[in-house]
Amino acid sequence: MITMATKEDQSSATLDVNAIRHDFPILSGSTVPIYLDNAATTLKPASVISAINKYYEEYSANVHRSIYALGEKATKAYEDAREKTARFINAPDSSHIIFTSGTTEAINLVAYAWGRYNLKPGDEILITEMEHHSNIIPWQLVARDTGATLRYIPITENGSLDLSNIDELLNPKTKIVAMIHQSNVFGTLNPVAQLIAKAKDIGALTLVDAAQSVPHLPVDVAALDCDFFAFSGHKMLGPTGIGVLYARLELQEAMEPFQGGGEMIQQVTMDSSTWNDVPWKFEAGTPNIAQAIGLGAAMEYITSKDRTLLIQYEKRLTNYAIKSLQDITGMTIYGDSDPRGPVISFNVDGIHPHDLAQVLDQHNVAVRAGHHCAQPIMNRLGITATTRASFFFYNTSKEIDSLCESIEDARKFMGLK
Amino acid sequence: MITMATKEDQSSATLDVNAIRHDFPILSGSTVPIYLDNAATTLKPASVISAINKYYEEYSANVHRSIYALGEKATKAYEDAREKTARFINAPDSSHIIFTSGTTEAINLVAYAWGRYNLKPGDEILITEMEHHSNIIPWQLVARDTGATLRYIPITENGSLDLSNIDELLNPKTKIVAMIHQSNVFGTLNPVAQLIAKAKDIGALTLVDAAQSVPHLPVDVAALDCDFFAFSGHKMLGPTGIGVLYARLELQEAMEPFQGGGEMIQQVTMDSSTWNDVPWKFEAGTPNIAQAIGLGAAMEYITSKDRTLLIQYEKRLTNYAIKSLQDITGMTIYGDSDPRGPVISFNVDGIHPHDLAQVLDQHNVAVRAGHHCAQPIMNRLGITATTRASFFFYNTSKEIDSLCESIEDARKFMGLK
Amino acid sequence: MDDLRELYQELILDHNQNPHNYGEMDDPTATADGFNPLCGDRLTLYLRMSDEVVEDIKFVGSGCAISKASASIMTTLLKGKTRKEAITLFEMFHKMVTTGELPEGDLGKLAVLSGVYKYPARVKCAVLAWHTSKNALEGKESVAKTE
Amino acid sequence: MDDLRELYQELILDHNQNPHNYGEMDDPTATADGFNPLCGDRLTLYLRMSDEVVEDIKFVGSGCAISKASASIMTTLLKGKTRKEAITLFEMFHKMVTTGELPEGDLGKLAVLSGVYKYPARVKCAVLAWHTSKNALEGKESVAKTE
Ligand SMILES: Cc1ncc(COP(=O)(O)O)c(C=O)c1O
Ligand SMILES: Cc1ncc(COP(=O)(O)O)c(C=O)c1O
Ligand code: FES
Ligand code: FES
Fold this sequence. Notes:
The complex is a heterotetramer, with two copies of chain A and two copies of chain C. Chain A is of the alpha/beta class. Chain A contains 15 helices and 15 strands.
């Protein structure tokens, strides 16, 4: 395995992983974690941390409506982050970008501000069995409250969408199709472009949960032609507490506001109020200023690299991990789709995933054990949990070797033969 | 004026303002702003910034459900922030504390998760004419959607609540009384304890918008005996993107969830789901981890000082500012209540507030001009805007002198006699 | 303060204190309302067209020195212009206050507002009256907002 | 790894691989379900009381080594105890796994779980079976959750 690792490291010489690792303070500390839980949240490069610091140390003013220099600087930085976001996902312009506190709030915004005012009994909401809870519960709640019906595109045993019945599932009653772009359990990259086209044909809206795809792939919302597109900053090298909802302008105009408060209004009287222009209509209260600025810095960091190299590198890393894991006795890997993202869920016979994660932690290897906020997938597979290793371009094949060696040790430790 | 300033500075010698100013990086930079817009957002001490950095540089893992050391450290830090918050406002325990992205989200949470499921035509929501838009719009929206009626406690010309008609306004139809603790326009500290007691008598719930009070006063939610209590981190030396909703446990249990997603669930099936224990039931998705930790550090910073001294100091500063401003020709100060907080709204005859703020900015003095997200107050006063200066304990009487001198200069600059 | 004097030129202060064509009009052929959501200031514009020519133009409203002076100077400039000339002037002015470029054509006294582009928060003040008069010229009903 | 061996003592691994009293019961006087929301693991507990004494006790379910071993050892300990003794044992055990304090009384083999308190995320694993049997002993209907 050590030979392979060396070979891997050489063939990836074009991406200077060591240089990249130097950009991440946590990877230059005294005890460097083998951090393989990137699908949960990623590490942060120094440039992101310092963009946040700069705001707090040099111009920590509130945005909009400030007439003084500090406030104008903060406003410009905040709105620049919106521009960067628009460019990052190829939105036509920054008015398509609503800042939220995360993917979860982005999806809830749609469920509240569009769903509650547009769905009625008989209408259908179509999601998939592969969704993260954040793209299930908002729809369960809105279905319960509006009388609409929530339906699911089933998945196959090996972690792909089962589209055999799609023409019945996606029908004239379907008002919105909300689907995960890249699975946080299987890694599956779903054929969302195809489903969006199909949904458009029958006049249904579309929402893409891109929390796992945006960090790893260049995305193009204009080409996808979806109506809504949601993702989180903290999963793509950015701060916690910031997310993005891309929403088509006509929909933003037509939608009710979500939260009420400062910033989102134009005029308030005691009787009634009018709303600010989009996208600010959907940003009530003091926004997540430092966080938006940090997210902008994260996008800059990613675009400063050759993305093709990053993708190749993560792909090679993932393939190497799959291959190495498969050599372990009692190993089951869930999902075998291609194309896929850098996330692998697995179980080892005779070791509960939580025990495995516990032993790996002792080896300084951080992986996730659990249902990964996707209980319907667990139910489908007839298990309660998996262990999940997920990578980012700062990970190395040596770290994957450590993962595998630790799993072997865990088997011994737990008394398995 | 300079003599007075010196006197002031001496009499406040017990609070070492210079030492405090050293704790704030922005006040030790090359160009130090005269920052008098603290009611909009405050500056940040180094300890808050470094608490955030520490999370990003040393243990930037996701919280809850992590079996590895980094994740446990993050979870502990996040939950410790909840404990600190409970102590800071004297909540019985940390389960009363729901983290939100700000005051605005905290109030919207109540309007959505309680209001939409409990209000019906004929019910009344009682707020005041003095509210911030964040405590108006959520209720306008919920009133519109449920058929409940929104009523207002009027205010007097000089910025106090007019309680002459309170027994009619607060009546058995009233289901909730939502009121601002300390006015962000007038500085008025409202008699919320008295109104809470009155509301309790007739069985109405109570919500206190404490965005402006918590940064300046020790508050005691147990003594106030309110049902909900909301405030923001960024207005009390903490990060943007974090706020707090204190909510009584029985209400948390009885309420519907607000947003749906990860963390807030217990069990999810494709048909239906059950909710996590409170308060996590109301925290959907990856929380604002770094921000909660930063807020905890802000609370620690404040409690590390002698709060009586801080309050005395801010009071003296405010009195000094009122006295100094009153000497300026054409000055109108809005509101004259006692007790009051360190915020003063005013206008100078012949200068539009935005022009004034612009000239003050040239003098490096940052104040706010506008409606301060309180248009009903502006309507009541028959104006469109005021200039507002608001202080924090790092401000000095010298800075107030600069404010007043700059206003005098502005008058000259604008050609006034 | 020198910087700021570039924004608040003496001529602006004069127009602010003594705005031209300030007041209501009895017999307008068109009126329009303008609103600057950033500050809450409002302005009503009265227009009397005769054929395609601005015969008279007046305004009332609240606003800062920039917006009042801009409105005042605008009215003096637009009087006597054709509808088409007025719209062209709007476009030149708009370009000037957003980019700082002094346009080729004749912007006359309006050039005193060329410093505004350095103050993004104040651009809306300068264009408020112009947006409103454009609406009045084009017969639009809705309240003009500063973009 | 030495640290971890304190958590996963050999006895725990033995009980995990060969849990005692694992299986369903035909004639329970009480049953209860337990659920650990942190991981989704579930456990069903069967109890047969005779007078006030635990005559038989069994369990089935999914779970990690800690939870299985804890359930297994618990069943061996509770058999023959009175309801009151069982509840007292629950309290002693609960204190031990949350504080690390070895209680005065006789906790017998359960002391092998005394290392759990150092792993807050795993405390729920250790107490799952205990909460469930407490519910069964007290005749509570609802699903026992680990606090
Ligand atoms: C009294 C009051 N309530 C609510 C808010 C809204 O707070 P935030 O913008 O942090 O949500 C503010 C501040 O803007 C305020 O002053
Ligand atoms: C696919 C997917 N959707 C949504 C989410 C929720 O994102 P957040 O917790 O940042 O709101 C996640 C991550 O937890 C995810 O992986
Ligand atoms: S500030 Fe209102 S128009 Fe200029
Ligand atoms: S991990 Fe589920 S009970 Fe221990």
